[in-house]
Write the structure tokens for this entry.
Amino acid sequence: MMKTPAKSSEGALVLFSGGQDSTTCLFWAKKHFSSVKALCIEYGQKHSLEVELARKIAEEADVPFQLLDASVIGGLSANSLTDPDIEMDEEKPERSCPNTFVPGRNIFFLTFAAVIARNHGIRNLVTGVSQTDFSGYPDCRDTFIRSLNVSLDLAMEEQFIIYTPLMWLDKKQTWELADRMGVFDLVKEKTLTCYNGIPGQGCMKCPACKLRKEGLDKYLEEKSW
Ligand code: ZN
């Protein structure tokens, strides 16, 4: 991730799903860029509530919201986020990604984002991927993001900058960042991270909820010192 100036006069496009991470990134972007747009991509996920919550949060953030239907992505592979017949991995298998991994998702998402951003004269893209994510999704790693940045530049003869404010943060630090951006309560109450589609604190059972809660507990504990 490149360093951002205190506040850039440029605009940014944020990949936005209405979850904890991308919501934190949306408000991070508002602080660092003079104008921000949110792009929400439907990839065939089971829970359409996600999109409605994302739209509401964007409204509250006063950020223009665009929804792109790319539901074809989910159907291209067997994964438990888009196929109701596949039971979700609760633990990461030893030698592979959990079946919550949607192959190609981030390469598609960032490519769509780059094309749309370019059309608006925007070169700054923001995504909430994190290498510290427990699942070890390959398309969340810094090397992939850097490599795709080069490819997008070459593909469109542009100079995109992909910002990843959460790349090196764990979940506790992501809560801390949300707090610093002044949206701790909004993130806690209104975002949806749960793989079972329950907003706020979620089902408390799926891996995403456990990770979110663990980070929140650690952050609150540290804050109370
Ligand atoms: Zn859950």
Notes: The longest strand covers residues 33-42. The mean pLDDT is 91. The beta strands are 8-15, 33-42, 65-69, 124-126, 161-163.
